[in-house]
């Protein structure tokens, strides 16, 4: 396998940009910062020396680096006022846009767990590995989030 699991940089950007932007927007609540973070992730990828075993390994690496860059963003002094979600964010489906305000009410770890589980199809064990959290913690957070979102969505109906 070559450096990027058989994919060109262009193919990686085409394949994973929407996923990474979704994660970054959900974490930062700021489209401009999300785009900057994803750009930083791709720059880090270009400096990556160790080859990826598979496309799944590459995807997991991209997600983990994006999440870590989001955490770094909150530690930095560049945290700005959030920019509202708009129609230009075409990478979110109409259904996703309806529940985004509720998703944004969750804490950043809960948002990431929901995204990785429901949108990317990761298991609780895979999520735990990606974000360095215990499997049981991920499972209990996922259950709590489901209950929280159910209450929020029922109140809104």
Automatic annotation (TrEMBL):
<feature type="domain" description="HTH luxR-type">
    <location>
        <begin position="121"/>
        <end position="148"/>
    </location>
</feature>
<keyword id="KW-0805">Transcription regulation</keyword>
<protein>
    <recommendedName>
        <fullName>HTH luxR-type domain-containing protein</fullName>
    </recommendedName>
</protein>
<dbReference type="Pfam" id="PF04542">
    <property type="entry name" value="Sigma70_r2"/>
</dbReference>
<dbReference type="InterPro" id="IPR000792">
    <property type="entry name" value="Tscrpt_reg_LuxR_C"/>
</dbReference>
<dbReference type="Pfam" id="PF08281">
    <property type="entry name" value="Sigma70_r4_2"/>
</dbReference>
<dbReference type="InterPro" id="IPR039425">
    <property type="entry name" value="RNA_pol_sigma-70-like"/>
</dbReference>
<dbReference type="GO" id="GO:0006352">
    <property type="term" value="P:DNA-templated transcription initiation"/>
</dbReference>
<dbReference type="GO" id="GO:0003677">
    <property type="term" value="F:DNA binding"/>
</dbReference>
<dbReference type="InterPro" id="IPR013325">
    <property type="entry name" value="RNA_pol_sigma_r2"/>
</dbReference>
<dbReference type="InterPro" id="IPR036388">
    <property type="entry name" value="WH-like_DNA-bd_sf"/>
</dbReference>
<dbReference type="InterPro" id="IPR013324">
    <property type="entry name" value="RNA_pol_sigma_r3/r4-like"/>
</dbReference>
<dbReference type="GO" id="GO:0016987">
    <property type="term" value="F:sigma factor activity"/>
</dbReference>
<dbReference type="InterPro" id="IPR007627">
    <property type="entry name" value="RNA_pol_sigma70_r2"/>
</dbReference>
<dbReference type="InterPro" id="IPR014284">
    <property type="entry name" value="RNA_pol_sigma-70_dom"/>
</dbReference>
<keyword id="KW-0804">Transcription</keyword>
<comment type="similarity">
    <text>Belongs to the sigma-70 factor family. ECF subfamily.</text>
</comment>
<keyword id="KW-0731">Sigma factor</keyword>
<dbReference type="InterPro" id="IPR013249">
    <property type="entry name" value="RNA_pol_sigma70_r4_t2"/>
</dbReference>
């Amino acid at each position: 396998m070559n450096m990027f699991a058989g994919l060109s940089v262009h193919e990686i950007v085409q394949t994973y940009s929407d996923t990474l932007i979704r994660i970054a927007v959900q974490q930062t609540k700021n489209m401009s910062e999300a785009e900057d973070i994803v750009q930083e992730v791709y720059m880090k990828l270009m400096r990556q020396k160790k080859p990826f075993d598979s496309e799944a390994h590459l995807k997991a690496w991209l997600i983990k680096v994006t999440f870590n860059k989001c955490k770094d963003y909150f530690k930095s002094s560049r945290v700005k006022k959030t920019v509202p979600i708009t129609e230009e964010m075409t990478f979110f489906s109409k259904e996703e846009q309806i529940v985004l305000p509720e998703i944004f009410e969750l804490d950043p770890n809960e948002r990431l767990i929901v995204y990785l589980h429901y949108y990317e199809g990761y298991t609780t064990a895979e999520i735990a590995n990606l974000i360095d959290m215990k499997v049981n913690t991920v499972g209990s957070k996922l259950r709590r989030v489901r209950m929280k979102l159910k209450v929020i969505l029922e109140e809104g109906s």
